[in-house]
Amino acid sequence: FPRDIHASQTLSRAQDVDSAYDYVIIGGGTAGLTVADRLTEDGKTTVLVIEYGQLSDSALIKTVQGGFSGMDTQFLYDINSVPQVNLKNRTTAVLIGKVLGGSSAVNAMMTVRGTSEDYDRWGSFFGNHSHWSWQGLLPYFKRALNFVPPNADVTKESNITYEKSFWGGTSGVYAGWPSFQYPATAAQISAFKGIPGVEFPVDSGSGKPGVYWYPTFMDPKLVERSYSRTGHYDGKNRSNYDLITESKVTRIILNGTTATGVSFVHGSAEVETVVNARKEVILAAGGIHSPQILQLSGIGPSKVLAAAQINTVVDLPGVGQNFQDHPMLQSMYQYRNLKLRPSGDDLFSNATFINWASTVWASNRTGPYSIATGNAAAWLPFPVVSSKSADIAAQLLAQDHASTLPAGTDPTVVAGYRAQMQSYASALRGNGTAFYNSVFTGGSSSGILVDLHPLSRGSVNIDPADPQGREPLVDYRALSNPLDVVIMTELMRFSRRFYMNNTLTKGWSPVEIIPGNKVVSDREFADYIVDSLSPTEYHPVGTCAMMPREMGGVVDEELKVYGVKNLRVVDGSIMPTLPGGNTCQTVYAIAEKAADLIRFGAPVVV
Ligand SMILES: Cc1cc2nc3c(=O)[nH]c(=O)nc-3n(C[C@H](O)[C@H](O)[C@H](O)COP(=O)(O)OP(=O)(O)OC[C@H]3O[C@@H](n4cnc5c(N)ncnc54)[C@H](O)[C@@H]3O)c2cc1C
């Protein structure tokens, strides 16, 4: 079809793409579509978004119930990690969204932030005056999401607290709430009242660790997933905002060290199409593919590029290094005598309740089927869960930091890692950073425990055997810092104490299912962790870190790639360290801030 009668700005053929745009954005995911929307708001600035995945209207993406239906293989890349040496050579699936909306289209919809200390840490790597700080990001958290409070009944029944001053109300991406909560969820929150040092922040957006309620990435009217596509693409119909899907970017075009455009392949075409960027190329392909695309373009560690026979244009040792994700452990406890009804278990076993849930859902989209993965969890600082915090912090400071990174790691990358570990040593001793995370189910059993600040660092490098044709080599290097096992053991021991020795929940008759009472000594915990750890909660970050170049950084505080003109990275990969929470909300805030840096050269709302 000719361009002018096309129904929207979605281009279906490579030849429909203009020869040049002001900005070309690689990746129509969480960050990519957010930036594209903001840049085109003026009606003048021209933007092309190039997305590898399809534009899908599947109900699997929209469905909130249970939180997992979007994680369907048709919307995911088919990537497995390299065998994990410290996990008996197990490999693990690397889940990332391959569809318009990226990982925001497939994620579990948990809407949380890290603590203020997590974001202040980012700025600290640049000195104390960086605008990358909690105060510098808070306005962008507010711009990123449209907070719609839970309804009055459920708020009262479940004692949900929130504080609107931490939220905004203008974004097209919603932080909504289910219209139903199980009574056990509020009771599980109260069960922490017996644990010394635990705080109960009034709102999940306060930047404080503790036990609290949090919303869902959900449009509260439609009761459907709210994500970067629904908030930042659908209905925009701007003639200056073009999108082409099913198109794989193969490299960034460089004229010397200036980015001038992007080369991509559409569908099954064999030919590459080149599109020029008059102002900038913006790389937003996520934590796994942004470093891959930089390396394929000759920007990265020269050794990695040489092995793949790619000419080094800019030797940038940090590209693809400093890889982090949240490790998950199975830690399962069950209350045999949880009398609070209805409970999450009833949705699987009680025919009357299931019938009611189906009826209210069918009639007005309310009830338990409006819950995704739940709305309350514990996010606890290390001294609250362990008496060994000072000792472990001292061991971390005393480590030879290079020894836990791959042999031959560039000294700048080692310097960045050392700075991170120094910051983590004080975080381990303090009460401003959460290390322990466990989500409440509203039912009788709990399942997953997350280590929010792992010390090990992995890598994402192009595969020298076929750099263009194959997915990158994803190596979590799980447990490569031996203190991770020590920390995880402490997290697991805390869970055991919380469930088994808690006077407030004794009447619920707790039993330990996993790891089980045979696991007691340090050695037994270590063996259990090696056998069962998942190195990922699908939160890949750090691979294009925003750090000083002499600390292995890839982008500066304006998210510009060192040594290259007119090229920025805007996505999860720029986080130098993980926030103590699921990453999507932070990616939205980064993208909102980046849009201001691009448009105005500075964060205007600070
Ligand atoms: C299964 C799963 C569950 C999760 N659960 C939660 C949760 O409950 N809460 C939470 O806060 N976070 C969650 N996350 C994490 C969160 O969704 C991500 O951190 C965030 O969405 C990442 O945003 P991004 O912009 O960095 O990357 P993405 O959103 O992944 O976007 C990158 C985009 O680039 C495209 N792309 C890649 N390579 C190319 C190429 N060569 N050419 C063209 N396009 C390309 C991809 O297809 C993708 O659309 C989850 C993630 C997953 C995968």
Task: Provide a compact summary of the structure.
By secondary structure, the chain is α/β, with parallel strands linked by helices. The protein has helices at residues 30-40, 59-62, 116-124, 134-144, 152-158, 183-190, 228-232, 286-296, 302-307, 346-349, 351-364, 382-385, 389-398, 411-429, 483-500, 522-532, 584-600, and strands spanning 10-11, 20-26, 47-50, 146-147, 174-175, 210-213, 218-219, 224-225, 241-244, 247-255, 258-266, 273-283, 299-300, 314-315, 328-335, 376-381, 434-439, 445-451, 459-461, 473-475, 510-514, 567-569. The longest helix has 19 residues, at 411-429.
Describe the secondary structure blueprint for this structure.
Blueprint: E1 10-11, E2 20-26, H1 30-40, E3 47-50, H2 59-62, H3 116-124, H4 134-144, E4 146-147, H5 152-158, E5 174-175, H6 183-190, E6 210-213, E7 218-219, E8 224-225, H7 228-232, E9 241-244, E10 247-255, E11 258-266, E12 273-283, H8 286-296, E13 299-300, H9 302-307, E14 314-315, E15 328-335, H10 346-349, H11 351-364, E16 376-381, H12 382-385, H13 389-398, H14 411-429, E17 434-439, E18 445-451, E19 459-461, E20 473-475, H15 483-500, E21 510-514, H16 522-532, E22 567-569, H17 584-600
Parallel strand pairs: 1-9, 2-3, 2-12, 3-9, 4-5, 12-22, 13-14
Antiparallel strand pairs: 6-16, 7-8, 10-11, 11-12, 15-18, 15-21, 16-17, 17-18, 19-20
The chain binds flavin-adenine dinucleotide.
Notes on the protein architecture:
Helix content is 28%, strand content 17%. The strands form six sheets. Strands 1, 2, 3, 9, 10, 11, 12 and 22 form an eight-stranded mixed sheet that branches. It has a six-stranded antiparallel sheet with strand order 6-16-17-18-15-21. The chain has a two-stranded parallel sheet with strand order 4-5. Helix 1 packs parallel to helix 17, helix 4 (134-144) packs across helix 17 and helix 15 (483-500) packs across helix 16 (522-532). The chain is α/β, with parallel strands linked by helices. Bound molecules: flavin-adenine dinucleotide.
